[in-house]
Amino acid sequence: MSDRYQGFVSSPIGKMLAKNLGLPSPTPLERYAAGAPLVRGTVVTGGQGRLTARLPDVLDDLDVTWTTDTDTVAGASGTYKALVFDATGVTDTEGLLALQEFFSPLMRRLETCSRVVVLGTTPESVQGSERIAQRALEGFTRSLGKEIGRGGTVQLVSVSPGAEAAIASTLAFLLSPKSAYVSGQVVRIGAHGAQEAGPVADWSRPLEGKVALVTGASRGIGEQIARVLHRDGAKVVGVDVPQAASELQALMKELEGDHLSLDITGKDAPQRVAHHLKTEHGGVDIVVHNAGITRDKKLANMAEDRWASVIGVNLTAPERITRALLDGSVIADNGRIIGVASIAGIAGNVGQTNYAASKAGVIGLVESLAGGLDRGITINAVAPGFIITAMTAAVPFATREVGQRLNAMSQGGLPVDVAEAIAWFASPGSTAVNGNVVRVCGQMMLGA
Fold it and tell me: Which range of residues forms the domain containing residue 145?
C-alpha cells in the first residue's frame, strides 16, 4: 500500500508546501531487489581496534567496494554510501574524540539512503573507563540516527571478545538496503558466548537447503516473511488458521513450499507441528513465530475473551510450540527461533494492554531462552513499529498519519522490512547473533 502523503510531498506543489510550512518530507527508501549487489557505492572504514584488520576480508567476501584512506577521502570530491568505524579500540572517554574526527568531515559526503555502522565492544565484557566509553557509543549512534536524514541509517554493533569472526552476516544486513527501516539499533554479537558463524556459501541465497516454519503465513507480514525466506533459498512451511487455508495453499504452491492448516492455540497444536516437520521434512532449521492478533479495548472495558485470545495466540502458542520443538530435538543444529514482538511491547499503547503484554512477553521468551540454548541454536526477535498493512489502513486517517511520521524517517515501514530483518537472524552466519530484540521502526522518536 502506498503512502499518499509521501507521494504528495514528492510532487512540485507538495515540495513547496512542505518547505514553506515546515512539514516532514520523507525520502523514498531504497530496498533490496533479488540479484542486486549488497552495497551500491563505496564504504569508508576508519578507527582502530580488534576488528580493523578483519574488516577488509569481510567486505571483500561481501563483494563491497571500500577504502580506508581517510586523509584522501576528506579532501576528495566524491560521495560515499556507507561509513564503518571500529571503536573497539576506544578505552577511555578521551578516546571518543576519534568519532568526531572521523565522522564530521564525511557526513556531508554521504549519499541518499546511506549507512553508518559503529563497531564497539559489549560494555558488560569490559570494566572501568573502557566500559564507560563503550556505553557512550549507544548515545552517539542513537543521536546520529536522528540527524543523518535523507533515508540514512545508523547502528551500533557491540562485539564481544572472541566473536570477531562472526560479524559478516550483520554487516551484510546493516550495510545493505535490506535494513532500510532499521535505525538507531544496538546489535550484540557473542553476548551469550562467542560461537563460530556457520558458513555462507552464497550471500545471495544464504538459506539454501534450509527448512523454515512461518506461522500466520497467508497474508500481510507473514506472507512477506515467507517470500523473503524463499528468495534466500529456504523451503517454507506455512502455517495458518483453517479459515485462511485457500490463501495459504495458493501462496505455498507459488513458493514451492508446504502448508499446515491449524489453530496454533489448539491443545495438540505443538505436537502436530512437531510431527509434521519431523516426518515430512526431517526437522526444521528456522522457526518464525509471526502469527498475531489484536483485540483492542481500554482495560476498564476489556472482556476476558479479548484478553485470553490475544495472549493465547501471540504469546502462549509460540512458547508452547518452541518448547515442543526443542524438547523433541526437531530444530536442527545451528537452528533459528525468531519471534515477532512490537514497539507496543516496549513503549505501550493506549487500548492495547493485552497486545502490549503479549509482545513484551515475546521479548521475555527471547531473554529466558537465549542463554540456555545449545547446538548453535539462537533466539531473537524483531519489534516492528508502524508497518503499512491492510490492518493499519483501517486506522483512522489522523491517527495513521501521526503514527507514520513519529520516527526519524517520517514514514511507515513495509512488511518486507520486517521480513528482511528476520532473514538476517535466520542466516547460518548469524550464530553469534543471539538474544537480540531489534526494532524495525524507522527509529521512533517517542517511547523506544
Answer: 31-189
